[in-house]
Amino acid sequence: xxxxxxxxxxxxxxxxxxxxxxxxxxxxxxxxxxxxxxxxxxxxxxxxxxxxxxxxxxxxxxxxxxxxxxxxxxxxxxxxxxxxxxxxxxxxxxxxxxxxxxxxxxxxxxxxxxxxxxxxxxxxxxxxxxxxxxxxxxxxxxxxxxxxxxxxxxxxxxxxxxxxxxxxxxxxxxxxxxxxxxxxxxxxxxxxxxxxxxxxxxxxxxxxxxxxxxxxxxxxxxxxxxxxxxxx
Length: 232
What we know:
Blueprint: E1 2-12, H1 14-32, E2 37-39, E3 43-44, E4 55-56, E5 60-69, E6 74-96, E7 104-130, E8 137-155, E9 166-185, E10 190-205, E11 211-224, H2 226-229
Parallel strand pairs: 2-7
Antiparallel strand pairs: 1-5, 1-11, 2-3, 4-6, 5-6, 6-7, 7-8, 8-9, 9-10, 10-11
InterPro entries: OMP/PagP_B-barrel
């Protein structure tokens, strides 16, 4: 059994690109004076000042896996893992305005807002190939497929001066993952595990028919040899 976690070194895909495009669209509207820019919804923001840079944070990953060795070199495993991605940037908000025919006025909030852009739960199965047989130093390569469910912040509508709120949308998807790593056993029962991986996820929800998330990075954690532990 392995318990590992870490941060992504790369996060991309169409879902991430959509968020970046939205932020770029807001910047263009602010620079052109299409929408007013305010701080905390009330204070005017000087047009000559640049808006704070938006950013998508590194994703946080967690994974638990159980592997069963069918030969000295090949093992099958099942896993449960999570990925969470935070974003920070400007946003388009609305305030009640009875003088406006729409009933509200929109503006760009200059103070960066943080939220969880994407969070998922993955249920996977896969195969590992171990290069060395029953060795304290245990390098391996693994392939995994998974089904997942997720929640994501997703804006609908076109990028214009109308107000399109951000809702949290649930959905489902499929994922694929490849990893290369090594286990190092301190004792026959316990050791450390580290791996470098890349993954791609295809997503679908009631808000969109197809989006994707790509991420890569490394994970570090612990490994427990349940067979050796069971001998006590």
